[in-house]
Design brief:
The structure holds 2 protein chains of 2 kinds. Chain A is mainly alpha-helical. Chain A folds into 2 domains: 1-86, Up-down Bundle (Four Helix Bundle (Hemerythrin (Met), subunit A)); 126-164. In chain A, 72% of the residues lie in helices and 0% in strands. In chain A, helix 1 (4-25) packs antiparallel against helix 2 (29-49). Chain B has a single domain, classed as Orthogonal Bundle (Helix Hairpins), CATH 1.10.287. The radius of gyration of chain B is 17 Å and the shape is elongated. The N and C termini of chain B lie far apart (57 Å). At the A-B interface, helix 1, helix 2, helix 3, helix 4 and helix 5 of A face helix 1, helix 2 and helix 3 of B.
């Protein structure tokens, strides 16, 4: 008899795999973005299953919200008709083999892990903020600097008045 | 507290990483390549949270903190990637990565 958490994990894992494959194989680019939005929502649900509610909310806001809208802008700004179809690219043998080899390699490493069911430790989100702004404070500062540089670089790349 | 085991989670994220790697190598549209990178990145970020949640002490907090920082990195990377897509579209009129042989300003 499976517990509720196991059933939830199996369903979430199946949805994650199906949406990830579907996003890469579907032919219309806008449909791809809808599939990837479902994928991000699913990953957010996995965070809630792992007792990490702050990460779940962050995933909803950053990925399901901001990244999806950014990708939609990318589609809208680079083509005249957003529902035009992609040219079908076949499934090449070499990349497929490489991906399978990577998967098998990681799964053999997984065999070394403890197989029994573990316990998930849950934390108070206020403890997370202490860790984030204490031990990981320099990382956050670095992230802020990187984001500032990224915004400056993006504006430089797309600014008006630069003709090829 | 739960009956979940680490093996299933790591199997899931390795499968997602393999799917992302396959997408990066095969897709020709720049936006699809960005999406495949995001799938692989999500799989990598999930690993930090699993291994933190299944260990003892304050390791879970460190895993979640690293995941927060990495989500920020990934969002930044999408923004810069989209800027490159727009610049490439203006320069070449296409966002096919096979034709992106020059990006000189």
């Amino acid at each position: 008899m499976m517990s509720l958490e196991q059933i939830a994990f199996l369903v979430l894992a199946a949805v994650a795999l199906i949406t990830a494959v579907g996003a890469l194989l579907v032919r219309e680019l806008v449909h791809t973005i809808l599939w990837i939005a479902v994928f991000f929502l699913d990953v957010s649900a996995i965070y809630f299953l792992l007792d990490a509610p702050f990460l779940g909310v962050l995933q909803l806001g950053v990925y399901a919200g901001a990244v999806t809208v950014l990708l939609l802008f990318g589609v809208m700004l680079t083509r005249k008709r957003i529902f035009s179809r992609e040219a079908v690219t076949g499934i090449d043998a070499v990349p497929l083999a490489l991906a399978l080899v990577t998967f098998v390699f990681v799964v053999t490493v997984v065999g070394e892990l403890p197989q029994s069911a573990g316990t998930i430790t849950s934390y108070d989100p206020s403890l997370l903020s202490e860790t984030l702004f204490g031990t990981f404070g320099p990382w956050l500062l670095l992230l802020g600097l990187l984001m500032m540089g990224a915004v400056a670089g993006s504006i430089f790349l797309v600014r008006e008045g630069r003709e090829p | 507290m739960t009956d979940l085991s680490l093996v299933g989670f790591v199997g899931l994220s390795s499968a997602l990483f393999a799917i992302g790697l396959f997408g990066i190598l095969t897709r020709r549209n720049f936006i699809l390549v960005l999406i495949a990178i995001e799938i692989a990145m999500n799989a990598a970020i999930l690993n930090f949270v699993y291994f933190g949640a299944f260990s003892h002490g304050t390791a879970g907090l460190s895993g979640q903190a690293v995941a927060v920082v990495l989500i920020g990195f990934a969002a930044t990377e999408v923004a810069v990637g989209l800027a490159i897509v727009l610049a490439l579209n203006r320069l070449k009129g296409t966002i096919n990565v096979a034709q992106a042989n020059e990006l000189k300003l």
